[in-house]
Amino acid sequence: MNKLELISALKTEANISKSEAAKVVQILFDNMANALARGERVEIRGLCSFFVKNYKSYTGRNPKTGEKVIIRPKKLPFFKSGKELKERVNC
Predict the structure, then answer these.
(1) Which fold does the domain 3-81 belong to in CATH?
(2) Spatial distance between the Cα atoms of 3 and 76, rounded to a whole number of angstroms
(3) What digits encode the pLDDT tens for the residues 38-59?
């Protein structure tokens, strides 16, 4: 399912216009992204949680030249499925 399919499903289920459904989905995604950008955890009970992992700086190697390269610290978003979602997928 992609964003457009989600909007279409919301439109049908909630009996609202496509533009209203698109606005709701965009508000949801924007708020989730903003919370993650602030370092907050986003949890949707029964479905999943999103959180940000912090990685420290380390020394890596350029695979082409073999030269040592300093990798800067970074933050990456992660997804963890909830128990109910795992059970639903594994029926």
Answers:
(1) HU Protein; Chain A (4.10.520)
(2) 22
(3) 999 999 998 999 999 999 999 9
The rounded distance, in Å, linking the Cα atoms of 51 and 89 is 22
Joined together, the tokens standing for residue 77 give: 């978003």
Alpha carbon of residue 21 to chain centroid: 20
Q: Name the pTM for this structure.
A: 0.78
CA distance 69 to 54: 19
Q: With DSSP H G I counted as helix, E B as strand and the rest as coil, what are the percentages for the chain, rounded to 5? A: 45, 30, 25
| Whether 22 contacts 30, CB under 8 Å | no
